[in-house]
Amino acid sequence: MLVVGDIVTDVVARHRGPLASGTDTAAAIRTMPGGAGANVACWAAHWGCPDVRILGRVGADSAAWHERELTASGVRPQLVVDPTAPTGTVICLVDADAAAERTFLTDSGASLRLDPGDWSPSLLDNVAWLHLSGYLFFSEPGRALVAVTLESARARGVPVSLDPASAGFLSVLGVDRFLALAEGVDVLLPSRDEACLLTGLPDPGDAAAKLSRHVPLVVVKQGGAGALVAESGAVREHVPAAPATPVDTTGAGDAFTGAFLAAVLSGSRPREAAAEGCRAGARAVERVGGRPERNA
């Protein structure tokens, strides 16, 4: 499996209760490797996918560290080192008193500069699945790269999945523009908020059904409410969430996506793959950061 997407540095700050404006708020702060694309790759490898690769752009400031972290997680990094832009950084504010809900402050840095010049059709050699991080859609070079990768995948008959990644950035880009750019994708894995935003429908089941008229398989991630699997204009499965005690919800959706894709590639049907995704999401929220524990 090849993932094309963002590799960033996460600064995770876990605090309790509202932030105290204009003064100090006590927090536990950790610097960790992250990025939606990189997290998906690491979870797919952790969930048993034997060959996971990632194409991403990082700055020279932390390229060696990110390469080591990805390799240690069982992922084969194909890193483009940007000569001028630093690695993207995300500050993750996690309220421990609000079901570990997180808020992101995002400086995408070098990841926004991944472009068609970084692509080669040979990256798909011996690849059975291509996954795109939705963050690619939020810069002009990234959108151009999406078009090139989709063309390469179609030429080789490689299925493509897409995680929209951010309801906030999606609303800025525009729903119609996103859907036009995503044409030809085989699997769409939005969150509940993203699915509702993409359709203008308040009910996630209705949203999943509508999206599945345009994308063959839609899996809507609903956090503690589990996941919906929709095909051919109808919700086919409602998969319950796995029990968990949240510590940090950063990367839970990435964990779902990585485990789901690993299960699909191993031959699981969508319902079973979604159940694996729910299990991975539950495990993710019980850890700080967006990556899984290292395989022994």
UniProtKB/TrEMBL annotation:
Protein name: Sugar kinase
PANTHER family in UniProt: PFKB DOMAIN PROTEIN, SUGAR KINASE
One Gene Ontology term from the biological process aspect of the record: phosphate-containing compound metabolic process
Organism for this UniProt entry: Streptomyces sporangiiformans
Family named by the database record: Belongs to the carbohydrate kinase PfkB family.
A Gene Ontology molecular function term of the record: kinase activity
Xref: CDD domains: KdgK
Annotated ranges, domain Carbohydrate kinase PfkB: 2-291
Source organism superkingdom: Bacteria
Key words of the record: Kinase, Transferase
UniProt key word Transferase: yes
SUPFAM superfamilies assigned: Ribokinase-like
